[in-house]
Amino acid sequence: MKQKTFVLGTMLLVAFCAGMATAGESSVELGQKLFNDPKLGNGTSGKSCNSCHAGGQGMEKAGKRADLGVMINQCIVGPLKGQKIDGSSVEMRSLKMYIESLAK
Length: 104
Known about the structure:
Largest sheet: none
CATH topology: Cytochrome Bc1 Complex, Chain D, domain 2
CATH architecture: Orthogonal Bundle
Helix content: 40-55%
Number of domains: 1
Strand content: under 5%
Oligomer: single chain
CATH superfamily: Cytochrome c-like domain
Shape: globular
Structural class: mainly alpha
Distance between the termini: 58 Å
Number of helices: 5
Number of strands: 0
């Protein structure tokens, strides 16, 4: 019984820490990591944003679009075959920051 309790406690701690990893501050670095992550939005296609936009190429003007979050979610739902991410989440803010940084 103690071993089961220990295993359950360990699993809960790992899940909590994983959640905390994405609950931090938005950053360009996190945005770049997410841009290259085929699991963004629980994507199932094996593709990442980088699959179609290698190194952010061709996205230099996208960061100025008012509908950038909508565009990001369209790509997540479409080519990545994932689920939309919340527009105010750390992930979305970080992706926007990364894409905005490509214009510089």
